[in-house]
Amino acid sequence: METSFILRRACQALLPATLLLASCSKSDTPAPAPVDQGKVAFVNAASHIAPTTLKFLVDNTEKASLAYGASSGYQGIQTGSHSLQVTAGTQAAFTMTLAPEKDKTYTFVATPATSPSTVNGLLFPDDLTAPATGKARIRLINLAQSVGTPLRLSQVTSTVTGPVVADVVTNVGVNSASAFTEFAPGTYALSILDNSATAGATPIAQVGDGSGSGSGTKTYEAGKIYTVVVSGTKGSLNQDQKVKAFLSQNN
Questions:
Q1: Do the Cβ atoms of 210 and 220 come closer than 8 Å?
Q2: From 88's CA, which of 6, 156, 182, 247 has a CA 20 to 30 Å away?
Q3: Where do the DUF4397 domain residues begin and end (predicted)?
């Protein structure tokens, strides 16, 4: 009994020292503070070299590899100045300085250029404010070539008295983006029209299911935010490079 008592007392005496050693073995260095970041989504809309896949790199780190018409999700990028590069195959096709701000979101679009060995690029700020209850939001980015007039995004409905046009977004000039606009969610086959076109005019492109095929419909959901990118050359004999509309979701 006495031996057991002595062992128990010895263990009790060692316990504080053991706990002290364990606590000392842990790093006293505080966890690093989270880095400030912005977010950037990437889109391949370089129709003049379609269907070429493009790679998007920031400071030589690949962020996305995208087929023509495709878009990436948002990528976190530390605030400050960075080199953004777009490559086609092994060739650099575009370079610019990217400087995202803290907690801001952007979309970078690789756009048509005059040379088949290069692309251009546009950076758009993204206002991802949630839509009002029961609404969705959408914007139009117009990169269409040889169209000559601003574009609009509309729903064309056939009736017994003729087509009825309900505009969602209007007057979007080339190489520019509309603001995000609220609209009623639902299933639509949206059309891209010349801004001055009258009811019954042939659409410049159909959004359809958003894949670029121009066919089908898309169900737009309440609370969601969408972007339609229109790119291509009006009158092109190259099927890949005709004017097409691609849909992506921002949230």
A1: no
A2: 247
A3: 39-147
Give residues with Cβ within 8 angstroms of 147, minimum separation 6: 174, 194, 204, 234, 243
Classify each residue of 170-200 as buried b or exposed e, where b means 16 or more C-beta atoms within 10 Å of its C-beta: eebebeebbebbebebeebbbbbbbbebeee
CA distance 207 to 205: 7
What the chain holds in terms of domains, given with CATH numbers, is 35-126 (2.60.40), 127-251 (2.60.40)
What distance, in Å, lies between the first and last C-alpha atoms of the chain? 71
Strand order in the sheet with 151-159: 162-172, 151-159, 191-194, 205-206
> Tens-of-pLDDT digits for all 251 residues of the chain?
455 544 455 445 545 555 444 555 556 677 777 789 999 999 999 999 999 999 999 999 999 999 999 999 999 999 999 999 999 999 999 999 999 999 999 999 999 999 999 999 999 999 999 999 999 999 999 999 999 899 999 998 888 887 888 999 999 999 999 999 999 999 999 999 999 888 788 999 999 999 999 999 999 999 999 999 999 999 999 999 999 999 999 99
Give 108-137 as a DSSP string. EEEE--SSTT--EEEEEE---PPPPTT-EE
CA geometry: angle 188, 137, 148, nearest 5 deg: 75
Torsion angles phi and psi, residue 80, rounded to 5: 110, -175
Helix, strand, or coil (residue 71):
strand
Report the distance separating Cα 55 and Cα 65, nearest Å. 4
Q: How many CA atoms lie within 13 A of 157 on its CB side?
A: 8
The two structure tokens encoding residue 228: 């339609």
